[in-house]
Write a structure and sequence with these properties.
The chain is an alpha/beta fold. The protein has a single domain, classed as Alpha-Beta Barrel (TIM Barrel). The protein is about 35% helix and about 15% strand. The chain contains nine helices and twelve strands. An eight-stranded parallel barrel has the order 2-3-4-5-8-9-10-11, surrounded by six helices.
Amino acid sequence: MSAKTVITCALTGLLTDPAVHNVPVTPEEMADHAEQAFNAGATIVHCHFRNQGEGMGHLPTWDLDTVGDILGAIKDRVPEIIICMSTGVMGPDISGPVACLEKFKPEMAACNAGSLNYLKLRSSGAWAWPPVLFDNPVEKVKQFLDVMTANGVVPEFECFDSGIVRSVGLFKRNGMFEGDPHISCVMGVASGMPAKPEWLPLLVEEMIEGTHYQVIAVGRKEIWDLHRKCVELGGNVRTGLEDTFYLPNGEKAKDNGELVEALADIVREVGREIAGPAEAREILGLRE
């Protein structure tokens, strides 16, 4: 267990409407929020990329020019920061994220490690959106891992359920990836693992030796106890406007910097130190 905690900030989500919530979209906005997060203690930024044209920012894009402009703006502003690129797509066509991985070769990239029926209900009992399968069969996971291995990208396995956490160990034994696993326990999605602190020790028990892990906690003020438990266990943590809009006191955060500040306070309250960029790279086994 490292003596220091690595903090990640997920700058903007997949479909959150920037007309409703203060999520960054443009290269300048993404760089601004990355700098806020870095100054507050985050050493990794998890990046989704949004369209820059008509209806700007509401839909994702894999356009190489757009992605390059966003990544370039972030690295120009905060050269030391670690980029973790999103790769999630529904269906078998992964050409968009693969092209981005091959061109930009980020230090880390998300690798969704299993499938999930992505569901949410309204208070009336009606579906909040049409039920959808976020499909990540083994052959799709392997395609991503082969590309990441070829380009020196460390996979960060996003796991929405306990069986997916266990699957990462099977991937390792099968030789699908190299090095120690990096697992993100995604907790709080209505049809996935709940954001309950008491679940976390059980999940950690199912991880193979040498696993680096963090919590991605989705929800409101209830998620902060889960973050605290993860730090107490020696794990790393992630926050940001992709995961929550709400601070521990229940108030809505103005920006990513406020969320990272709140998480950094919890890390210190638990009695651990926050890893800087060089320390985070050493802890996580990343290339320089």
